[in-house]
Structure formats: structure tokens, C-alpha cells
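TASK: fixed-backbone design
INPUT:
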């Protein structure tokens, strides 16, 4: 092989190797992923975790007052603070990676599991166990608190009066939520955000991969468990199970679904929680797609489907509980579920392929 041929061969080999370094390929390399990650960490994730941390502390403080004086007025204040906590949760649940992955399960598993088990909650209250040294995550968390405080006012207060340990159990759950969120927030505000921004590849284990997989996973949760499961759409179901909606006892099920939808959609466009103070321009997955082949076409398709879902949602009154709509077989839910199912193709199958990011979570959808 002469010198010229050897040189050409070497250059081609280097090109192939560099192209294989990143699953997104040479086109994907043109996108400044670290800038997207910096925007997401500083303007989205940390401020939203700060929001829910404050909401959890306010709930806990209000619960301390209720523990002393179990009046209707204090119960209503407690319910109001729970609502703020539950809605704040919808906006951070997508960031259930990194610090949110704990030794005993993820933050989502430990404080956001729904539906809860009434039998388990009552059993732990009866035996006066607040250790939480078990895997019964459906006996604690935000939705266990919901069960405890959202019966009719007289029944709820009487239950706390009749079972004083009920207050202790609620307080233990509340403090557990505060401390877990605080742990995650402190790590994001510390060294983790730096490593998150620097880990800007697209391979499994990279920050973009974690962010994308969590984005798609929570969309699947919304479609399959916020909506599909209570509608009776999951494998093995023969009928609807309306009690399995998120927010059943508070009757906030529809508005919580709307909030989760908005939070997921925000991540697609890029969402600055502190937009007025931000020196960073919004960067979401939409911006990333502009830099890859066929990305603009997928952006058009994806946003058309976002709009179709939004059109159905606009016809639904958020004050009408989802469980009521399921029980009455409201046809709008069938249309909503259909449009959400169609959307999986764009944000999961096609987006994963174009960005070169593998789906790393287990899915039983068959799509």
C-alpha cells in the first residue's frame, strides 16, 4: 500500500471510529447537548424540585397544626396543602433518575405509588408501625396521605379521634416525603448537576438517555396507568376499575392527569420554571430533533399529535372526576386514550430511532 493510499485509509478509519463514538452519529454531534442539559438542570429540574420541597414542608407544617386541633377548618387547610403537593409532584416525577434512584427504590416508587392499598395502610396503623422497612410502597407516600384526609370531613376527623395513632402514621409519611425530596434536591443543587451537564453523550447511561427515557416512561405511565388501567385497557382486565385512578379520594383525578400531560409536553418544548430570570434560551427535545435527518418532519408529526390530544382534553371539565367519566363510559375518554396511543409512535419509536437513543426501561406495550 503506497503512502497516499495508507493516508486515505487512516482518515477513513478515524471517521468511522468517531462516528461510532456517539449513537446519534455525526449529525447528532452538531447539537450542543450540554447546553440543553444545563438549561434543563438549572431552569427546570432544580426549580421544580424546590417547588415540591416547599409544598411538602408546608403540608407537613399544616399537618402538625391539624394534629393538635382536628377541626374542620384545619382539615380544609390540610387538604388545600395536599393539593399543592400533589400537583407539584406531577412536574418533577419525570426526573426520577440520578439522585432519585435510592437504595430502597426510586422517589417515584416511594412517594408517588398509586393506587394505594387501604388494607395495608389500616394494618400498619393498627400495629402502630411507621418504620417503612418494607416494600409495601402502596401503604405510604402522597396518595396514602390522600386516603387518610379525604373522606367526608366528619368521617375523617372522627377516624383521627378514634385512632390517635392515625395522626402519627400520617406525620411519619409526611416527614418521610419531606426528607426524601430534600435529599434529591440537595444532590441536584450540589455536585450531581455538574456531572449531569458534563455527561453529554447519547449512549445508555448518559444524561440525555436518562432524561429521554424518563420522559417516555412517564408518558407511558400517564397513558397506561393514569388512564388505561382504570379504563380496563390493560392485559388481563375484563372490566374497568375506576378506583385505580390517581387522585381517587380527593376527586382531583382529571386535573392531575391534565397537569401530568402539561409537564410532559413542556419537556418536549423546553420549559423554564424561572423563565423571567433565565439567561438560557429554552431547549427541549424539539430543538435536538432539528439537528438530525428527518427531525423536522417528526417535529411536525409530533406536534400535530400533541394538538389532537389537546383538542380532546379541551372538551373535558377538570372538575369532573375521571372515575365518574369511566363509570359512565364517557366516549371522550376512549378518544383520548386512542390519541395518546397513537402518540407513542412519534415520541417513543421514531424519536428513539432518529436520536439514536435506546429505550432502556422495560415496556409491555408491544409498541
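OUTPUT:
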Amino acid at each position: 500500500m503506497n503512502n497516499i493510499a495508507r493516508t486515505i485509509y487512516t482518515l477513513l478509519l478515524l471517521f468511522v471510529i468517531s462516528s461510532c463514538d456517539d449513537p446519534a452519529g455525526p449529525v447528532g454531534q452538531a447539537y450542543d447537548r450540554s447546553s440543553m442539559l444545563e438549561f434543563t438542570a438549572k431552569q427546570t429540574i432544580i426549580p421544580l424540585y424546590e417547588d415540591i420541597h416547599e409544598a411538602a414542608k408546608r403540608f407537613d407544617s399544616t399537618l402538625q397544626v391539624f394534629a393538635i386541633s382536628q377541626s374542620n377548618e384545619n382539615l380544609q387547610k390540610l387538604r388545600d396543602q395536599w393539593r399543592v403537593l400533589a400537583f407539584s409532584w406531577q412536574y418533577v416525577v419525570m426526573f426520577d433518575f440520578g439522585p432519585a434512584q435510592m437504595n430502597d427504590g426510586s422517589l417515584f416508587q416511594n412517594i408517588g405509588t398509586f393506587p394505594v392499598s387501604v388494607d395495608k395502610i389500616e394494618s400498619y396503623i393498627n400495629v402502630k408501625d411507621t418504620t417503612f422497612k418494607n416494600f409495601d410502597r402502596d401503604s405510604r407516600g402522597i396518595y396514602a396521605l390522600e386516603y387518610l384526609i379525604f373522606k367526608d370531613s366528619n368521617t375523617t376527623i372522627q377516624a383521627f379521634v378514634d385512632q390517635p395513632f392515625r395522626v402519627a402514621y400520617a406525620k411519619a409519611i409526611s416527614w418521610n416525603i419531606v426528607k426524601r425530596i430534600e435529599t434529591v434536591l440537595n444532590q441536584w443543587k450540589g455536585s450531581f448537576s455538574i456531572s449531569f451537564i458534563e455527561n453529554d453523550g447519547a449512549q445508555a447511561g448518559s444524561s440525555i438517555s436518562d432524561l429521554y427515557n424518563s420522559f417516555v416512561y412517564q408518558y407511558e405511565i400517564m397513558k397506561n396507568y393514569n388512564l388505561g388501567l382504570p379504563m380496563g385497557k390493560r392485559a388481563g382486565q375484563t372490566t374497568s376499575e375506576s378506583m385505580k385512578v390517581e387522585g381517587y379520594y380527593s376527586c382531583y383525578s382529571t386535573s392531575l392527569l391534565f397537569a401530568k400531560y402539561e409537564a410532559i409536553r413542556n419537556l418536549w418544548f423546553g420549559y423554564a420554571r424561572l423563565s423571567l430570570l433565565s439567561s438560557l434560551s429554552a431547549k427541549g427535545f424539539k430543538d435536538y430533533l432539528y439537528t438530525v435527518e428527518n427531525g423536522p418532519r417528526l417535529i411536525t408529526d409530533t406536534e400535530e399529535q400533541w394538538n389532537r390530544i389537546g383538542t380532546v382534553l379541551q372538551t373535558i371539565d377538570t372538575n369532573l372526576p375521571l372515575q365518574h367519566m369511566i363509570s359512565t363510559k364517557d366516549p371522550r375518554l376512549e378518544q383520548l386514550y386512542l390519541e395518546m396511543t397513537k402518540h407513542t409512535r412519534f415520541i417513543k419509536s421514531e424519536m428513539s430511532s432518529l436520536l439514536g437513543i435506546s429505550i432502556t426501561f422495560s415496556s409491555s406495550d408491544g409498541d
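COMMENT: The longest helix spans residues 33-68.
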